[in-house]
Task: inverse folding
């Protein structure tokens, strides 16, 4: 495997086509979504009539050539081609300014919508259990081949259909990296970008994704983002102190096994966190019922973790600081922080308020 020093893969199998994309595809309907540097549109392949999602990626971002980042994204998608929970890559087109990834279309959209949906739209715990199993199977497959996603959040987990609730597809491998012990050291070996105290912390590992899955589960179950503060700095502090609560009002009717599951992931020390394979064996995901929890009491005994260590940035901050592959992206990452929900994240209560007003 051809890899540069920051865990990006530089060799791909897919033939990059230079003919005009529009000769082979018709764009249909509205945009499916967009991120910082990409627009995703639904398209129909003229020769087959099949629907796909075309992700248009700008090669230059903030004056930097980011073609290698896109090649890395393609390489990761190729390596996960057999993974049923990773979106599949059909074709790639390139123009002077853009690369177009023709992807399987996940017609159900982002799980984000249902995370913040009102009662009848929102996921039930049963839904979350089924979807969490799929996310974990997908992520376990990535981790088995030493790929870390590094941007797992409700906007990057899509559904094949929303009603009836379909299956999940993991998308957006724009920040993904190959990690094995050698790479991790190399990523750490870019000290000029990293504050010395940050270097004392754990490097990027598959456990980094597991933390995100803990946050993701919390959001899917409650519609509330557990670490979100009023300011970015407060959010970072909440994360680094593992300042999290499972209050009774928002956890009403949610099983104590679900809380136990999240607590096995939202642990500061990445080595202590459950792996994707561990998670798949957790009783919550294996049909064990549990009595309704007395969350206030269990909360009291769970705070010890954040008190046992001096205050320090979480391992995720390290990743943020260590990115140096594309300055545009690294800036974006620092600005957005390790916390996956960078946009103001509405809670169900807030949405309700807006609807009433
Ligand atoms: P970015 O790297 O800019 O965040 P993403 O790959 O996350 O780009 O795509 C942006 C958005 O486009 C996603 O959050 C999702 O809403 C939508 N999208 C991406 N891929 C697909 C797909 N294969 N099918 C349907 N919608 C998609
Ligand atoms: Mg995205």
Result:
């Amino acid at each position: 495997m051809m890899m540069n020093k920051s865990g990006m893969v530089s060799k791909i199998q897919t033939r990059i086509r230079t003919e005009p994309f529009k000769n082979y595809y018709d764009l249909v309907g509205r945009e499916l979504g967009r991120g910082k540097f990409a627009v995703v549109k639904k398209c129909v392949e003229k020769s087959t009539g099949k629907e796909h999602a075309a992700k248009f990626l700008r090669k230059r971002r903030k004056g930097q050539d980011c073609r290698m980042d896109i090649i890395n994204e393609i390489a990761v998608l190729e390596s996960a081609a057999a993974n049923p929970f990773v979106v599949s890559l059909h074709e790639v087109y390139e123009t002077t300014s853009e690369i177009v990834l023709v992807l399987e279309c996940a017609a159900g959209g982002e799980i984000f919508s249902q995370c913040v949906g009102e009662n009848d739209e929102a996921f039930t715990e049963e839904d979350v259990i089924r979807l969490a199993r799929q996310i974990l199977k997908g992520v376990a497959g990535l981790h088995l081949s030493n790929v870390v996603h590094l941007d797992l959040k409700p906007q990057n987990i899509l559904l094949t259909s929303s009603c009836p609730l379909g299956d999940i597809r993991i998308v957006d491998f724009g920040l993904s990296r190959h990690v094995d012990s050698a790479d991790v050291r190399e990523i750490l070996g870019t000290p000029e970008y990293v504050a010395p105290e940050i270097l004392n912390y754990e490097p990027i590992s598959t456990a980094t994704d597991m933390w995100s899955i803990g946050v993701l589960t919390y959001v899917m179950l409650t519609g509330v983002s557990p670490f979100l503060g009023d300011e970015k700095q407060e959010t970072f502090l909440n994360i680094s102190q593992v300042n999290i609560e499972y209050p009774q009002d928002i956890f009403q009717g949610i099983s104590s096994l679900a809380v136990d599951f999240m607590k096995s992931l939202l642990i500061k020390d990445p080595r202590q966190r459950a792996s994707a394979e561990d998670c798949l064996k957790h009783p919550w995901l294996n049909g064990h019922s549990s009595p309704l929890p007395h969350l206030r009491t269990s909360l009291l005994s769970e705070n010890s973790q954040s008190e046992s260590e001096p205050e320090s940035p979480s391992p995720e901050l390290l990743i943020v600081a260590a990115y140096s592959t594309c300055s545009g992206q690294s800036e974006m990452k620092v600005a957005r922080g390790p916390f996956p929900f960078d946009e103001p994240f509405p809670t169900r209560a807030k949405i309700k308020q807006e609807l009433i007003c």
Q: What stands out?
A: The chain is about 35% helix and 15% strand.
